[in-house]
Amino acid sequence: MSDLNNVTLMGRLVRDAEVRQTSSGKNCALFSLVVNRTKKENDQYVQTPHFFNLALFGSRSQGLLPYLKKGQLIVVEGHLEQRQWEKDGEKRSGTEIVVEEVHLAGYKKSETDNCAQTSSDGIQPQVSSDIPQAQTFAEDFEVVGNTTADNDSSNFFY
Fold first, then answer.
1. Distance, CA of 38 to CA of 46 (rounded, Å)
2. In angstroms, rounded to a whole number, what is the distance separating the alpha carbons of residues 87 and 89?
3. H or E element in which residue 63 lies
């Protein structure tokens, strides 16, 4: 029997995706996903957020960039990958999801905008700013596409 390493998640993007380039010149879209897990505690249902770092390689990374915006509901399929690197003489490691498929599942309706504008492609980008930020890992990508507002180059760990 061979090993199995498959991941399927549905959640919301924590921030806009950004495209960076690996040292070999390969494009990669980096983004984080929050998935809420509901469980019952003392006769109450409690939601616990879980954050995942994701990487999408290749030409699709640039093509999907306009749609991978904070608050976007997506379904991703991929596999887990563990990375190890050294920073400032200290060994570090982290696990991320390498995305093989992305499915846009809908938009989060903004609490402040009941009449959203529809773009020319028929998409209604209604996004909320109440999504918490995920902790990300350090890396040395060169930014080649959209970036986060703070342009933090310490995101992810390739």
1. 6
2. 5
3. helix 60-63
CB within 8 A of 54, min separation 6: which ones?
30, 31, 32, 33, 76, 78, 96, 97, 98, 99
pLDDT in tens, 131-148: 444 434 334 333 344 333
Q: Is this structure's pTM higher than 0.70?
A: no
Asked if residues 31 and 155 have their Cβ atoms less than 8 Å apart, the reply is no
* Cα–Cα dist 66/151, whole Å: 17
Question: The tokens of 74 are what?
Answer: 């997506």
Question: What one-letter code names the amino acid at 148?
Answer: T
Scan for tokens 């390739």, then name that residue: 158
| CB contact set of 108 (below 8 Å; sequence gap of 6+) | 12, 71, 72, 73, 126, 127, 128
